[in-house]
Amino acid sequence: MRDLALIFGAALVAALAVGLAGAVALRALRGRSITVHISVLLAMTVGAVAAGVAVVAEAMFLSPHDLEVVLTTVSAAAVVSLAVGWLFGRRLAAAAVWADQARERERRIEKGRRDLVAWVSHDLRTPLAGLRAMAEALEDGVVDDPATVAEYHRRIRVETDRMTRLVDDLFELSRINAGALRLSLSAVPLGDVVSDALAGTAPLAAARRIRLLAPESGWPTVTASEPELARVVGNLLLNAIRYTPDDGTVRVDAGRDADTAWLAVADTCGGIPERDLPRVFDVAFRGEPARTPRAADDGGSGGLGLAIVRGLIEAHGGRVDVQNISDGCRFVVRLPATGT
C-alpha cells in the first residue's frame, strides 16, 4: 500500500508540474484562438500522463530496455492522442465560432426586425392620421370651396399611392430576406433598362430642374432578371433625384471590366457623412436631416429603396457600393456581364 502511495505521489507531482506549465502557457496565450487553447489543453493533458509514467518508471528502477519500451509506448499513445484531439479540437472550435456568429446574426436580424416594425408603424401612422383628418373634413363639410376640395382629393390620392408603394417595398424586401426571389436570368441590354428608367423619372427631375445625363452608346449587356434590374436602376435614380438640390445634375454611366459590367449613378447632393456610408443600404436608414426628402409625392420608398437595391444585386451575385465624390456621391453596381 505504501508503494502505491509513493507511486501516486510521484506521478501527481510530475503531472502538477506539467499542469502548472500549461496554465502559464494558457495565460500567456489568452488572446489567441480557440484552436490554440484546445491544443494547449490537449498537450498539457497528454504531457501530464507521459510525465507521470516516466517518473514512476524511473523510480521503479526499470532496466534501460524496459524503460525505453515504456517511454516509446507512451510517446506513441501521446502522438495519436494529440493528433486526434487536434483534429476534433479544430472542428469544435469552428463549431463554436459558427454558433457565436449565428447568434450574433440572429440578434442583428431581430434588432432590425424590431426597428423596421417601429419605423413602418410610424411611417404608416402619420399619413393615416392626415388621411383621416382630410376625410372627416370633407365628410363634415368643413371645406366646401372647389379648390380646397380638389387639393384634399389630390393629397388623399398622393398619400394612398405612397402607402401602396411602401407596402409593395415591404413585400419585396420580405421576399429578398426570405430567399424567395425567383430570378429569370437572361442577357439584358443595360442601355434599354436605363433608357426606360430615365423616361420614368424625367418628369420628377424636370419639376425641380435637375439635369439627367447619360451617354448614348457604350452600354454593356449583363446577365440579370430584367424586372429586378429595372427596379434597381429606378430606385437608384429616384434616390439621386430626391437628394439632389434644385438645378442639380444626376449622371448615369456604365462600362465593363473583364467579365463584370458596372453601372454608376452620381448626383450632386453634397456628399454623405463618412460615418453614414456603411449604413446607407440598411433598412429604413435616412441619415442626417439634410438628406431627408422634402416631399412625400416624389416616388420615394421612404428608406427601403437602397436596401432593396442591395438585396436584388446580391441575389444576382453582384455587389453595390457608394462613395463620395467632389460634389455629391456615386453609387456603383457590378453584375456579371455576358460574352461579346
Automatic annotation (TrEMBL):
Entry's EC annotation: 2.7.13.3
Cellular-component GO terms for this entry: plasma membrane
Biological processes per GO annotation: cellular response to phosphate starvation
Statement: the UniProt record of this protein carries the keyword Transferase: yes
Domain of life: Bacteria
GO molecular function: phosphoprotein phosphatase activity; phosphorelay sensor kinase activity
Keyword terms, alphabetized: Kinase, Membrane, Phosphoprotein, Transferase, Transmembrane, Transmembrane helix, Two-component regulatory system
Cross-referenced SMART domains: HATPase_c, HisKA
Catalysed conversion reaction: ATP + protein L-histidine = ADP + protein N-phospho-L-histidine
Domain (Histidine kinase): residue spans on this chain: 119-339
TM ranges: 6-26, 38-57, 69-88
UniProt-annotated location(s): Cell membrane
Pfam families in the record: HATPase_c, HisKA
Coiled coil: none
SUPFAM superfamilies recorded: ATPase domain of HSP90 chaperone/DNA topoisomerase II/histidine kinase, Homodimeric domain of signal transducing histidine kinase
The protein's name: Sensor-like histidine kinase SenX3
Organism of this sequence: Micromonospora chersina
